[in-house]
Design a protein that fits this description.
single chain; about 170 residues; about 75% helix
Length: about 170
């Protein structure tokens, strides 16, 4: 159970840093204009990821980032998109495989276990990427901003812990 919580917390943290777009590529095409908000201050690849854009702008404001810091952090995040996107696609594919393998309430551990192992390996890779990106972002921040970010992360982790206990 602790492993599961760590995975969820890791995914939440990756989302916080704008590495994951919650909506799938398929649903993005059918999304209403209201759900596909594009933040004008983010030109380039992050603009294609509404959640990432929103989080980036929120953290930029909360940490009072300078223009130079914003550009450097944006370039860090954008550089990871081509690495993370295929992993997210694999997660979606594996999720579909799980749904197919357990359709109509059928369960066969010999079919589910390999899919779960693939999912675990992908999540492990995403967690490593998330920590690398976090390290790169911390290097851009002042000590005061690092402290503020740690407070925000701690608050988010507390929220996730509360959700998982319910």
């Amino acid at each position: 159970m602790r492993h599961y919580r760590a995975i969820i917390a890791g995914l939440v943290m990756m989302t916080m840093f704008g590495l994951i777009s919650i909506s799938s590529e398929d649903s993005a095409a059918s999304a209403s204009p209201r759900s596909a908000v594009v933040i004008p201050s983010l030109q380039g690849s992050l603009q294609d990821y509404p959640l990432a854009s929103w989080l980036f702008n929120r953290f930029s404001s909360r940490l009072s980032l300078t223009s130079e810091q914003k550009e450097e952090i944006k370039s860090i995040l954008v550089a990871e998109i081509p690495v993370v996107q295929p992993l997210i696609k694999k997660l979606r594919e594996n999720r579909q495989d799980i749904l197919t393998a357990t359709q109509d309430g059928h369960f066969d551990a010999s079919r589910v276990r390999p899919i779960a192992k693939r999912q675990g390996a992908i999540l492990a890779e995403l967690i490593v990427i998330k920590e690398q990106v976090k390290s790169e972002i911390y290097a851009v921040l002042t000590p005061e901003q690092q402290e503020q970010l740690q407070e925000v992360i701690s608050s988010l982790e507390d929220t996730v812990r509360k959700w998982l206990k319910q």
